[in-house]
Specification:
The chain is an alpha+beta fold and about 500 residues long. The protein has 2 domains: about 200 residues, Heat Shock Protein 90, CATH 3.30.565.10; about 280 residues, Hypothetical protein af1432 (Orthogonal Bundle), CATH 1.10.3210.10. It contains 24 helices and 5 strands. The chain is elongated and about 95 Å long. It holds the Pfam family HDOD. This is HDOD domain-containing protein.
């Protein structure tokens, strides 16, 4: 079945209309489709950090619903009454064996039965609701097993503990049910998020994901602190501002611009270093600033000055930025590789890398949050882990690093292409300007650069965007990633020196 266009999918979901999927049976062959569907929903409502968890939960519930239906057709085919305790005890070992080793035959029985499974998602003002239903009444044995898993979730302090102890088996580990209880228990909701409905003709599990993890008043207080931090950032230095102004002139006076650069030894050194790097095709060394500026090019030089000015301020103000610059640097290079690899994006292979260097400016401010505030978030969420996911932090705070970066970029009068990349690098489909292609490049490059940190994979990228780069399968994605990784390692030292 063709994938619904992204914009119409999002509009339909945000309107509050339920969106629905139906299955006769569910197995690993349905996982890719489910992953894409969940990805689209999570991206639509800015719950990207829940993508993997939601997939685990819904996959678990769908597999369990499939097993429940399969159990009934299997018992009927064997002439056993599933509601009789003696028949159940006799038939369940046979069913486990058949489901584990001869699943196709059971699925064939389901294909000719009236049993089915439905998955529904609906957007509400304060939460997202998922419903998994199968048209069979739950057995007491099945209901007891669910209740045991719900109770077992209380012994885990966090999601990591549940993952570590989960073990797959033919009856399923119940990890999805445990995960949803941990996640939403830590958000302060204990009785509203999981509901089991049993009727004579169907069984339904309802999962509700809240849109607020901490009280709105406290969220607004933390948001205000972040906005105050942005307001407190100093302007770019007068010399940087003058250089930017000169570089805006289409009929730039190169000797005059070079003379202004040379007034600042640090800027002079940076310009020469950049011009002589492979990044700008520096095969022969230039020693004159005017030649260096011409090599960098008029369309790049303004953003280079911006990057130098921004880096000086951010590094002097914040202490924990090494990892952010390292990721930005990697994203920058990956966007260059991407532009060189895909014909339609070659024209952006110089400007995209510079935008990539600045795309995460907002994260630096987010990471500057006072440790006592971070501890407060942990207490409010009952999260005792040493690390808090950056996505969870942003979701909890109610403001993303893209929002913060956008405010910084506007404050410092960045060019529109840089502002758009900072604002839309996680949601390029929202960009309505001519900078859409650059936003798409940084979106894909950012996720590619994050794969080594476990923060992205083929399924977390919007399929429509992947198609723009000729990526139609996970195999093609992995092949591209491997090429980029090798290329990055090959030139890493050179490029790290360039932006250190």
């Amino acid at each position: 079945m063709p994938l619904q266009p992204l914009i119409s999918f999002q509009e339909e979901f945000l309107s509050g209309n339920p969106i629905r999927k139906e299955y006769i049976h569910f197995s690993e062959i349905n996982c890719h489709d489910l992953d894409v569907w969940i990805g689209r929903i999570s991206r639509t409502v800015s719950l990207e950090f829940l993508h993997e968890i939601l997939f685990t939960i819904l996959n678990e519930l769908l597999v369990n619903a499939c097993k429940a239906n399969a159990k009934r057709v299997f018992f009927k085919e064997r002439g056993l009454n599933i509601h009789l305790e003696t028949d159940y005890s006799k038939g369940i070992p046979m069913f486990k064996d058949a489901f584990g080793h001869n699943r196709k035959s059971i699925f064939a029985l389901l294909d000719h039965s009236s049993y089915q499974i439905s998955l529904e998602a609906q957007n509400f003002p304060n939460f997202i609701e998922f419903k998994v239903r199968n048209n069979a009444k739950i057995l007491n044995e099945e209901k007891n097993r669910i209740e045991i898993r719900v109770q077992s979730s209380s012994k885990y302090k966090n999601i990591n503990d549940a993952y570590k102890e989960s073990v797959d088996n033919e009856e399923s580990s119940g990890l999805g049910i445990v995960l949803i209880h941990i996640l939403l228990r830590n958000s302060g909701l204990k009785n509203q998020f999981f509901e089991l409905i049993t009727m004579d003709d169907y069984t339904e599990v309802i999962i509700r994901i809240p849109k607020l993890l901490i009280p709105l008043e406290q969220q607004n207080q933390i948001r205000s602190l972040l906005l105050k931090e942005v307001d407190g950032l100093p302007p770019l230095s007068p010399q940087i501002q003058k250089l930017i102004q000169l570089s805006k002139d289409k009929d730039v006076d190169w000797p005059k611009l070079a003379a202004e650069v040379q007034k600042e030894p640090a800027i002079t050194a940076e310009v020469l270093k950049i011009a002589n790097a492979a990044f700008f095709g520096g095969h022969t060394k230039v020693t004159l600033v005017v030649d260096a500026l011409k090599r960098i090019g008029l369309k790049n030089i303004e953003t280079i000055f911006l990057a130098l000015g921004a880096r000086k301020i951010m590094n002097s103000r914040y202490a924990k930025q090494k990892s952010v610059w390292a990721h930005s640097f990697k994203t920058s290079l990956y966007s260059r590789f991407l532009g060189q690899s895909v014909h339609d994006f070659v024209r952006y292979s110089e400007i995209a890398p510079i935008c990539g260097l600045l795309h995460d400016l907002g994260r630096m401010v987010l990471l500057s949050l006072d440790l006592s505030i971070i501890q407060q978030i942990r207490v409010l969420r009952s999260d005792e882990a040493n690390e808090i996911s950056e996505w969870v932090e942003e979701f909890t705070l109610g403001i993303t690093h893209s929002d913060i970066g956008y405010l910084i970029a506007k404050k410092w009068n960045f060019p529109e292409e840089v502002i758009d990349v900072i604002r839309y690098h996680h949601k390029p489909w929202q960009c309505k300007s001519s900078n859409l292609s650059i936003c798409k490049m940084i979106y894909v490059s950012d996720i590619l650069a994050n794969t080594n940190r476990g923060k992205g994979n083929y399924y977390t990228i919007e399929p429509e965007i992947l198609e723009n780069f000729g990526i139609q399968s996970e195999t093609e994605f992995r092949s591209l990633l491997e090429r980029f990784k090798n290329k990055f390692e090959e030139h890493k030292d050179e490029f790290e020196e360039l932006f250190n």
